[in-house]
Amino acid sequence: MGISTTVMKCKKCDLIFANPLPIPANIEQHYGIPPESYWSAEYFKIRDDYFIKQIQTFSDLYGRTNDLRALDIGAGIGKCMIALENSGFEVWGLEPSNPFYEKALQTMKIEPSKLQLSTIENAVYEKESFDFITFGAVLEHLYNPSEAIQKAAYWLKPKGFIHIEVPSSNWLISRIANFVYKLQGLDYVTNISPMHSPFHLYEFGLKSFKENAKKHHYSIAHYSYEVCTTYLPKSLNKIFVPYMRATNTGMQLEIWLTKN
Ligand SMILES: [Zn+2]
């Protein structure tokens, strides 16, 4: 309470970040107690198409999905682990939040030996253990996403792929919101939420990964933008959704990395 920070955007690589970066004394302050609304019966259902598009993209890039090892970083209650397992992967997971970890074991019946209660920073796996590593809605929460990518690359087999889903720093709806703030003479921006839920510390552009790839010897194998929700009235979506699709200004950036 009473602490503020500045939200900045790198003109070279489109990364949006907080400067200074606020870090809680204990990660549980931010992620330990999820709201009860998380635990609706609906939340535990896995839709038939859950993570299928991503598994298809992996299959297109790699050639197959059976007899391969996958790692889900930020496994939550384990939905993605189950989807991967159903597609033939042998799957491990990492989850830093105790309530999610407990639900994964108790409700979703994830094998305890497959899921570690750990942050990526503290996790240990052997070099080149996995063919497919996925960070779904994770990197924007980490204090040092670049280090997390390097760690995942160390765990990745030479021909494997890292899949990342992050909020795009080029989202049209944020730009409109920021423009409305500007019209009111305010210096606010809607991007990131370092001090409140959902605790997004970063938004990323394609260039953020291109610049990072140069430093850390990986390549971008594939990328796409997803429009997701626009938060606009339905009647406007008819115009905005196709426009955002055509201009790569959707909410989410999906990116696939491979080692050089
Ligand atoms: Zn930059």
What would you say this structure looks like, in words?
- With 260 residues, the protein is of the alpha/beta class.
- The chain has a single domain, classed as Rossmann fold (3-Layer(aba) Sandwich).
- Helix content is 31%, strand content 23%.
- It contains eight helices and ten strands.
- The protein has a seven-stranded mixed beta sheet, with helices on both faces. Strands 1-2-8 form a three-stranded antiparallel beta sheet, with no helix packed on it.
- Strand 1 and strand 2 form a beta hairpin.
- The protein is globular.
- The N and C termini lie far apart (45 Å).
- The model has no long low-confidence stretch (mean pLDDT 93).
- The protein binds zinc ion.
- Zinc ion binds next to loops.
- InterPro entries: SAM-dependent_MTases_sf.
- It comes from Rhodocytophaga rosea.
- Keywords: Methyltransferase, Transferase.
Radius of gyration: 19 Å
Q: Number of helical segments?
A: 8
Q: Ranges with pLDDT <50 over ≥5 residues?
A: none
Under CATH at level 1, the class stands as Alpha Beta
Quick one: how many beta strands? Answer: 10
Helix content: 25-40%
CATH architecture: 3-Layer(aba) Sandwich
Distance between the amino and carboxyl termini: 45 Å
Mind telling me the CATH superfamily name? Vaccinia Virus protein VP39
Number of individual domains: 1
Strand content: 15-25%
Give descriptors for this structure:
260 residues; alpha/beta; Rossmann fold; seven-stranded mixed sheet; three-stranded antiparallel sheet; 31% helix; globular; binds zinc ion
